[in-house]
Write a structure and sequence with these properties.
By secondary structure, this protein is an alpha+beta fold. Helices cover 44% and strands 15% of the residues.
């Protein structure tokens, strides 16, 4: 494809001025239609050739409009996937008297096709159209985008200098959301066309927090229990019933032994011949038996009282014992 060099044409247009809209946005070359991209290039290139002829025919006022029409073709060429369209855009923007926008487009072209990698013919065509000023960048913590006079010159960091027009320029580093991270102003002149701009971008700090699992767990509370009524104290009844049973059984056993001794005495002394005093021995034996019977009855009443007291006490409501285990302790609740 034939390309048009504008190195000498820029001198012709140096004194020409025209009101026009500033082109600020770069298209993205993301398509894959090579044939259609070539057709767009041919159409735009033809318009640029006509614009140059008009300038040579002493009609330079027609050049910007024709270059703007060619720019539309080069934008579509880029959108169809041809990154060389950035160079064609740069040439069209020079004819439209937009040197900084031209520098922006050529800067994007050189990011895809570094100057040292170009063949001699292409380099001779591109290099004369690059702007005379050179801006070296020293950016600490570089990130975001580089802006020069509100034109986006691509993402940071970058390792190459920027070719821009001479004059005063406002250089900024902006975050993705447009926040200005650093700014500086510099001036390039024909006598001093190279400058270094040092920018400090605040470091991006990220705090990473890792949740810590709490391994200490409090012991679970004991399960809820129904309120327990006050228990009746049967201890005095146990004691009384036990005492009656003990006394009654003691009397019964004691007097049975005594009655048995009286019966043996009677059998030994009063049988077969009844002598004086035998009636008293019989009477004592009968009395001892009666007292023994009364004692056993009393003991039986005491035992019955113990049994009755135990039954009544056993039927009282009781609170169960609950045990809860924690990581370092054991909790007990209940009535002991």
């Amino acid at each position: 494809m034939a390309r048009i060099a504008l190195g000498t044409l820029v001198l012709v247009l140096g004194s020409f001025s025209i009101a026009h809209a500033q082109v600020t946005a770069l298209p993205e070359c993301t398509g894959h239609d090579v044939a259609q991209a070539s057709a767009e290039f041919e159409a735009g290139n033809a318009l640029l050739a006509q614009a140059i002829e008009q300038a040579r025919a002493h009609h330079p006022e027609r050049m910007p409009a024709m270059a703007a029409e060619a720019l539309g073709h080069f934008d579509r060429q880029c959108e169809l996937g041809d990154t060389s369209a950035y160079a064609e855009r740069g040439a069209a923007l020079l004819m439209m008297q937009q040197p900084l926008a031209s520098a922006q487009s050529y800067d994007r072209y050189l990011s895809f096709h570094p100057l040292d990698s170009l063949d001699a013919r292409t380099r001779r065509r591109i290099e004369p159209n690059l702007q005379p000023g050179t801006l070296d960048l020293e950016i600490q913590n570089a990130r975001g985008h580089l802006f020069i006079d509100d034109l986006d010159f691509g993402t940071l960091p970058r390792t190459t200098a920027v070719r821009i027009p001479v004059g005063e320029h406002h250089v900024e580093v902006r975050d993705a959301d447009g926040t200005v991270l650093a700014t500086e102003t510099t001036t390039l002149s024909q006598e001093s066309s190279r400058a270094t701009v040092a920018l400090f971008v605040p470091a991006l700090t990220t705090i990473v927090t890792t949740p810590v699992e709490d391994t200490h767990q409090a012991p679970p509370p004991p399960p809820p229990t129904e309120p327990v009524q006050d228990r009746f104290d049967f201890l005095p009844f146990y004691i009384a019933a036990g005492a009656v049973a003990a006394v009654g059984l003691g009397l019964g056993i004691g007097f049975i032994v005594a009655a048995d001794e009286r019966a043996r005495t009677y059998n030994a002394d009063c049988f077969p011949t009844v002598i004086s005093g035998c009636d008293a021995v019989l009477s004592e034996r009968d009395t001892d038996i009666a007292v023994a019977i009364a004692g056993f009855v009393l003991g039986g009443i005491g035992v019955a009282g113990l049994i009755t007291t135990w039954i009544l006490d056993a039927n009282q409501p009781r609170q169960h014992l609950h045990v809860a285990f924690g990581p370092t302790s054991v909790a007990l609740s209940g009535t002991f």
